[in-house]
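User: My instructor asked us to take a sequence, write out its structure as tokens, and then describe one feature of it. I'm not sure where to start. Here is the sequence I was given:
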Amino acid sequence: MLDFKRFDYLTFDCYGTLIDWERGIVEALRPVLARHGVELSDDEILERFGTLESAVEKPPYKRYRDVLATVLDGFGEAFGFTPSAEERESFGGSVGDWPAFPDSPEALKLLSRRFKLVILSNVDDDLFALSAKRLEVEFSDVITAQQVGSYKPDLRNFRTMLERTGNQPERVLHVAQSLFHDIAPAKSLGLTTVWVNRRHDRPGFGATPPAEATPDLEVPDLITLARQSVA
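Assistant: Let's start with the prediction itself. The structure tokens for your sequence are:
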């Protein structure tokens, strides 16, 4: 059990941890694929998305809207179609439609009673502003890929977060769903981590590339973490 009294800041990945990006991705992609005669299972969509996204997020930096549009291009290349400009724009802006996990608002409200909450997310500022409305809590700080000019697992994102939280890694608890994007790089910098294993009842890594990392705590959802930390 973690000693939660050690921490002043909880830093959160957003998409996959607070926002149900897998549902959002599938619901945004499936109509496009269907229009072009492509039939894939949810897991097939998510696994291909994860592979394409991680490749597109490598330097040089591009906006997340453009990352998503380029991912859609990758589906087209793989399955023999060319996405329209409208389809590319729509998928690039679909982040605002991705739903929050049902437990996220309540859990964040509980956690905000004890901790300063910070977002560390692979997203554009304007897209996160849309998602923030679904989370129903005020964050002490929001650090996006757009602000840093790189995407996690790049360590620059985590170093920026540490600078903005006072350069005291021992006072920061990083909370995330992705071993690849978050837990592994955070651990490499000596941060304490919580893995919110949203896929605990499903096989595979979903929309994130496979990775190995050992978190300090694993929970199946965010409300479990909230209840443990404020007990």
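For the description part of your assignment, you could build on this observation: The beta strands are 9-12, 116-121, 141-144, 172-176, 192-196, 217-219. Try explaining in your own words what that tells you about the chain.
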